[in-house]
Amino acid sequence: MNFSRALLTGALALTATTGALAQAGDFPNRPVTLVTPFAAGSGPDAVLRLVSDKLSRLWNQRVVIDNKPGGGGFIAIDQARRAAPDGYTLLQLDSEHVAALPHLYKSKNFVTLQHFDPVASLFRTPFFVAVGTDSKWKTMGDLIAAAKAEPEGVVYGSWGVGSPGHLGAQQLEALTGIRMRHAPYREVSQLYSNVGTGEVPWAFASIPSSQGIYKAGKLRYIAVAAPKRIPQMPDVPTMAEAGGPASLEVNSFVSLLAPKGVPTAVKAKINADVAKVIADPEIRARFDTFAFEPLAWSPEEIQRNAEAKSKVYGELVRRGNISLE
User: What is the pTM of this model?
Assistant: First the structure.
């Protein structure tokens, strides 16, 4: 009796495994949709379009991008959340959608990774400290000294409450003991225009978001919030080299997630195929122009990095009493 039961159990396990492999083997056999909260023309959208084009050729299937900006990311999240967990609907999110959103919208009781599984990583972007070209600040030491001399007198801008630019500045305050005032903007272009004119003394900036003002000669980068210099900007010192706290790292990573329940073999295939696409020389060249670091993390690595960010963001949100509700 026990022997027969063991045989039956083994047969069922083999059938399940074979079925999962078969699902992965013919995946995808119809179009795949990539839902994104990022607006058409943004940096993450541009990357996603490159990736979707390469994936469609690799899979011999259409890969459709569905831009659903707004609502703090929840419009895109809610749409993807309603999809079947079969791998045919994936959701592009940055690490703040994954790690900061639960802390910023507490009443929603929504923890992103309770509803979605990480599937594949795309890239990570570093953030620079940008000041106007005519700013008297040449180093992070200058900025910090000014903020210490006049508590809450120094203003910094960001592209919204809870953004990496906002939370990064909160972390700078926590590490140095300074206090500054936050000026959130709706339009990223207006933010860096105002930094360029000195109306806002400084802001964190990625290369894609600030390169227009930078190339016009109106911005300077006095530090990159990273442990190493960025190859695309080799003359910009690290945070530590510029006199700031060495432990301050401000970056954002972008990944693809799927509604919970997608077969493991399907997730593994998507992960491997996205990694193959990210390694394509054309995509690497485009990443270089944005200073995007290509990532080929496993789902487990994405999860670990998201959880680490969530811990940091949770502490910063509590410390600053930050909310988007």
Answer: 0.88
User: CB within 8 A of 68, min separation 6: which ones?
Assistant: 35, 36, 37, 75, 76, 79
125: phi then psi, degrees, rounded to nearest 5: -120, 135
User: pLDDT tens-digit profile of 6-48?
Assistant: 445 444 544 444 444 445 778 999 999 999 999 998 889 999 9
